[in-house]
Amino acid sequence: MLAGKFYTVTQQEQTSETISTAIAWNAAHPIFEGHFPGQPVVPGVCMMQTIQEILGNALQKNVMVRKASNMKFLNMIDPNKQPAVDVEIKYAVLETQELKVTAQIKSSELIFLKFQGLFTVKQ
Prior knowledge:
Pfam families: ApeI-like (PF22818). This protein has helices at about 30-35, 45-60, and strands spanning about 5-15, 20-25, 60-75, 85-95, 100-105, 110-120.
């Protein structure tokens, strides 16, 4: 949905329970014309959609957020000042087949979003 247009994956490493992805924002994307003119900021909903897409693509499953136990937007992302960020996702498959996920979007030591919650696998 957003991949390839709003952001591009530049590097990805995956183990059995972690996904580490480097992405580059498209600062020319039309979303930034309205959010906000002259001072672009990556919308929080787009940060969450990015995590959802990266998780789903890595697992080759269609996933959806079911519950956000803890979601903190700690800093704004200006795509001109932070043109590239890292998305780190840790997950565990529960007996219910849901995914328990901890994720963050960051650049070096600067953290933009922290998330803990559950994803469901859509059939």
